[in-house]
């Protein structure tokens, strides 16, 4: 059960992994944050420190909890450091081949009782689990962006995920003060099955000259009471992440209605990946 979880490994120190590491550290769990890129680890440490301090300034966290959380966080580029983790949460690039390769290595180094969770936005948990010898201990733990703020965790059960694994990860999510929904393992799960076609349609709306990007976003923000317009949201998520998810929906559901908009493809080809690159649909900085 989640109370027994003393140590968590988080793999990928980008926007999602850093936020997940922060949640675990604030919940009183020792965290190893792993990234192959040492610059990513430096930025992650900076962003976690700034973020917990913001919670303290707003009176949502005591200084003591924040200071202890930072002490609990350790960074590494060596997978072997995750050997004793009770739960390992993967948040690396959204590529099935890369994730499978990582899970197969994790299966080799992680202790037999460890649960291996993926923060994938859309890739099949059943197929990721097939790269391991412990598919009953593999599960989707899909946080929303940014993890410290967004209330939801979408838990995805692969074909062989055990009840025990599900119960432990649900309890761990609740320890992070999240609300849980449970999805079966089909492309895009619940949230992205519905959200990404909307974002893709916003790109088609721009691509076919129906309206300007500003009017598309304002129309959807004020017309449907959303905090961000779909194009602004795509920049926030990352256009590369949106494109990967659309490809998974297109291939996995086999319906042309999910084909990625050529404009989205072109932006990604041009390196316009959104906020993280300073340019996407909009320009930042
Ligand atoms: P990101 O590009 O910000 O970060 C990914 C990090 O993983 C990078 O720092 C990179 O150096 C590292 N990395 C890549 N391959 C690695 C490997 N083999 N081993 C160790 N580190 C590696 O990406 P992100 O937006 O944080 O997304 C990460 C995952 O979370 C993806 O699966 C994505 O679909 C999912 N996700 C993203 C969002 C979002 O809004 N961006 C929301 C929910 C889930």
Briefly, what is this?
It catalyses: a 4-saturated-(3S)-3-hydroxyacyl-CoA = a (3E)-enoyl-CoA + H2O; a (3S)-3-hydroxyacyl-CoA = a (2E)-enoyl-CoA + H2O. By secondary structure, the chain is an alpha/beta fold. It has helices spanning 15-26, 38-57, 63-72, 96-109, 125-129, 163-175, 191-207, 213-224, 230-237, 239-253, 262-269, and strands at residues 7-11, 30-34, 73-76, 87-90, 115-118, 138-143, 152-157, 179-184.
Characterise this structure.
The protein is α/β, with parallel strands linked by helices and 285 residues long. It has two domains: 7-184, Rossmann fold (3-Layer(aba) Sandwich), CATH 3.40.50.720; 192-277, Orthogonal Bundle (N-(1-d-carboxylethyl)-l-norvaline Dehydrogenase, domain 2). The chain has helices spanning 15-26, 38-57, 63-72, 96-109, 125-129, 163-175, 191-207, 213-224, 230-237, 239-253, 262-269, and strands at 7-11, 30-34, 73-76, 87-90, 115-118, 138-143, 152-157, 179-184. An eight-stranded mixed beta sheet has the order 3-2-1-4-5-6-7-8, with helices on both faces. The longest helix has 20 residues, at 38-57. The protein is globular and about 55 Å long. The relative contact order is 0.10. Bound molecules: nicotinamide-adenine-dinucleotide (NAD). The site of nicotinamide-adenine-dinucleotide has 27 residues, from α1, α4 and β6. Keywords: NAD, Oxidoreductase. NAD(+) binds at residues 12-17, 35, 94, 99, 121, 145, 276. In the central section; belongs to the 3-hydroxyacyl-CoA dehydrogenase family. Belongs to the 3-hydroxyacyl-CoA dehydrogenase family.
């Amino acid at each position: 059960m989640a109370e027994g979880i003393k140590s968590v490994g988080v793999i990928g120190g980008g926007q999602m992994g850093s936020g997940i590491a922060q949640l675990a550290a604030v919940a009183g769990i020792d965290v190893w944050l792993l990234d192959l890129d040492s610059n990513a680890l430096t930025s992650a440490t900076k962003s976690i420190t700034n973020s917990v301090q913001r919670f303290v300034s707003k009176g949502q966290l005591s200084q003591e909890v924040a200071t202890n959380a930072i002490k609990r966080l350790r960074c590494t580029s060596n997978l072997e450091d995750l050997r004793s983790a009770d739960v390992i949460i993967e948040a690396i690039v959204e590529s099935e081949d890369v994730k499978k390769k990582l899970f197969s290595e994790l299966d080799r180094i992680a202790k037999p009782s460890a649960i291996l969770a993926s923060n994938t936005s859309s890739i099949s948990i059943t197929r990721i689990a097939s790269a391991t010898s412990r598919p009953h201990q593999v599960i989707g733990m899909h946080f929303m962006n940014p993890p410290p703020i967004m209330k939801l965790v979408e838990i995805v059960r692969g074909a062989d995920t055990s009840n025990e694994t599900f119960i432990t990860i649900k309890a761990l999510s609740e320890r992070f003060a999240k609300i849980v929904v449970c999805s079966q393992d089909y492309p895009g799960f619940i949230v992205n099955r519905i959200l990404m076609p909307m974002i893709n349609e916003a790109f088609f709306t721009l691509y076919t000259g129906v309206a300007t990007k500003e009017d598309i976003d304002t129309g959807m923000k004020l017309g449907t009471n959303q905090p961000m317009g779909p194009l602004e949201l795509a920049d926030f998520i990352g256009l590369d992440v949106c494109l990967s998810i659309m490809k998974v929906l297109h291939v996995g559901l086999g319906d042309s209605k999910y084909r990625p908009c050529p404009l989205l493809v072109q932006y990604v080809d041009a390196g316009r990946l959104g906020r993280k690159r300073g340019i996407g649909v909009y320009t930042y900085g």
